[in-house]
Structure formats: structure tokens, C-alpha cells
Amino acid sequence: MNPPKRLRTTGNEAETPLSGQEEERSAVDVSIVMPMYNASCWLDECLQAVLHQDFTGTMELSVFDDASTDDSRKVVEGWRERLEARGLSLVIAGHNSAQPRGVGYAKNKAISQSCGQYLCFQDADDVMLPERVRLQYEASLLHPNSLIGCKVQRLPEGSTERYTRWINTITQDQLITQLYTSHGPTVIMPTWFCSRSWCLKVGAFDEGGKGVPEDLLFFYQSIRQGGGVARVDQCLLVYRYHEKATTHSVTEETIWKLRVDFLQERVLSQWDSFTIWNAGKQGRKLYRCLSSTNQKKVKAFCDVDENKIQKGFYTYEESKQRPKPKIPVVHYKVASAPFIICVKLDMTGGVLEENLNSLQLKEGIDYYHFN
Fold first, then answer.
1. Phi and psi torsions of 184, nearest 5°
2. Mean pLDDT (whole number) for 78-94
3. Strand, helix or coil at 127?
């Protein structure tokens, strides 16, 4: 596999140009897209795994350094000879501003300087298994206009246990029906693989920087554009958990508002009425955050807690309506579909799942999980 030629760009004052030859590059099959910020301690393991991919097509590694203050750039450059000996071209640029501009910005730059027909997103602190590019490339050929994910191994083991179990066990159908849960994208960003043409159709990642969930925004936009979601049902990535991960900068309230808006746009706008499953804190919070149009569609809360049911109603005290809205609270067995489920999955010892199954409901038609 011959390395493709690389293009040197001039960049702006804050950016350093691409490394490589001053000739236009020809397209490759897959660009591994890697934003980078202060990742030097992870890079050797990450790049060793890139080197060991068993994909036989043409590849490049496109790295954009978002103002790292460690020796990340130097570490990556130290791998150039080994990568190119493998036939894998290295394209690297970055900027040296006082502050990083954020993951969305770095991803956009890494994409724009790359030339692959397909894009394999890789976080600098994660490790891909040898068959990752090959299997996701094959899946992308079968699922055009889709974001392709995979199963993961979480490190350290046992961290984010429920989240990791959800990533690896939801079904292919639930990749679409569970878009609205608090877990975020049903295929997680560090595992994304898609065609360049689809990525460009969806548009750029949000460049708002720290505190902006650019992955979730891109994922929602992909769904709006009619994009699919698929997963290679094999572990292809070691997904590292640590306190410096950028995901920790996004607040729960930011995510909550985006989820509520997307639920209203995609689901509630299609329903004439519905029941909120959970008369407790989370169910009431969802109700309060709905538009007035969708609040009027809530015919009841349902629950299993007899204390809540015996009260008979939930009164929306903050409402400016007079009289204040009073929404019935009923037992789930006498409630009517469709439902928005505001009970956390995998937290009731299987009771929630058994109750849903007893009603013989179909996920994605009769109910959607929100929590």
C-alpha cells in the first residue's frame, strides 16, 4: 500500500501547516480522524493500534492538535516513519493559541485536511482493535448514509458500568428507539465510522467549545437528515474513562434541554396525547419542560407507587393558567399508551422491564425511553 501524497497548506497565523510533501494528495479509502489535546501519555498505545490494523485498503491518519501544551505533536511525529513504512500516510496540523478551541473545532479541521472516502473517528486516549477499520468499512458499504458504531471495552474495568452495558447490549432496533435517553448517542462518538459524503451532508461539528455537546448535536442532525444508525456487534475499541475527558465539561442541564427539544420534535409532535410513566421527580420535570402544546397532550402520569397514585393528581403549581392544570396519576395497569418512560433503565431489578412486557407494548410505537 503506497502512502498517498500530502498537501502542505499555509494555514492562518495561529495554525501550523500540514506536514508532508507539497503535492496534491489522491483520495484514500479511509481517513482515521483524530483531534488531539494534551494526549501524550496515551499516544504510543493509540498509534501502535493504528499501525496494527488489518484493513488492506489505503489509509491515512489525520491529526489536528488543539493547542496542546505537552509534547503530543512530537510524539505523533515520532511515529511518522513507522506509519509510512506500513503505507499509512500521516497528515498533522494544529494551532498554538493560548487556549484550545474545542473538540468540535479540532474534528472539523482534522476532517477538512483529510482525503479519505470514509472517516474513522478516533480519540487520542482510546485504542482500536486490529479489525476495527476493516469491519466498520465493510459495515459502511452495507449501511450507506449511516453512523456505524461498535461494542467497546471500558477501562478501567467497572467504570460507568451501566452505561457500558447499555452501549454493548441494546439491540439494532433500539439504536433508533433509544435516541432520547440520557446516555446520549446510541452509538458513541469514539466508535463512529461513516462516509465522507454523509459527514459533509450532515454538516460541521459545533465549534462552541467547552460545555457544548458537539457529538450529540451532530448525531441529532444526522437523524434529522434521514441518516441511519448501525453497530458492528463486536468489541472493536478500548474506551478509556478518566477525569480529564472533555465530556465532563458538559452539564446535565444542557443535555436535558437538547433531549427534551429533540423528543418534542421527533415524537411528541406526532402524538395527539400520551402518558408520562413516572409521577415522581423526573416525570414531573419532563412535564414542566414541555411546550404548553405538549403539556396539554399529557393525559396522565402513571406509576407503581401507591402513595403517588392515592393523591390522584399532580398540580402544576408554576403554571400561569387558571385554574392550574391538574394531571391524573394512575396505576400503570390502567394507563393508556403511548408512554414516555421516565424511569431509569436497569435500575429496578428488572421490574420496569417486566411491567412493560406485561402490557405487550412495542418500543418505538407504544413507548419511548427518555431516562
1. 90, -150
2. 98
3. strand
Given a contact cutoff of 8 angstroms between Cβ atoms, the answer to whether 163 and 186 are in contact is: no
Rounded Cα distance between 366 and 347, Å, is: 21
Q: How many CA atoms, within 13 angstroms, populate the side-chain half-sphere of residue 175? A: 23
Distance CA 286, CA 271 (A): 16
The Cα–Cα gap between 185 and 215 comes to 8
> Sheet containing 127-128: which strands, arranged edge to edge?
15-16, 88-95, 59-66, 28-36, 116-121, 193-195, 146-155, 228-240, 127-128
Rounded to the nearest integer, the mean pLDDT of the chain is 92
Spatial contact of 120 and 136, defined as CB atoms under 8 Å apart: yes
* DSSP conformation class of 336: -
Where b means 16+ CB within 10 Å and e means fewer, 239-257 reads: bbbeeeebeeebeeeeeee
What is the Cα–Cα distance from 75 to 92, expressed in whole angstroms? 12
Q: What is the pLDDT of residues 143-166, one digit of tens each?
A: 999 999 999 999 998 889 999 999
Tens digit of each residue's pLDDT (9 = 90 or more) over 27-85? 999 999 999 999 999 999 999 999 999 999 999 999 999 999 999 999 999 999 999 99
- Going by the DSSP 8-state scheme, the letter that residue 318 receives in this structure is T
Confidence at residue 18, expressed as pLDDT on a 0 to 100 scale: 67
Q: Give me the DSSP letters along 3-68.
A: PPP-------TTEEPPPS-SSPPPPEEEEEEEEESS-HHHHHHHHHHHHT----S-EEEEEEEES-
Joined together, the cell numbers standing for residue 140 give 459502511
The CA distance from 279 to 286, in Å, is 10
Asked if pLDDT for residue 249 goes beyond 50, the answer is yes
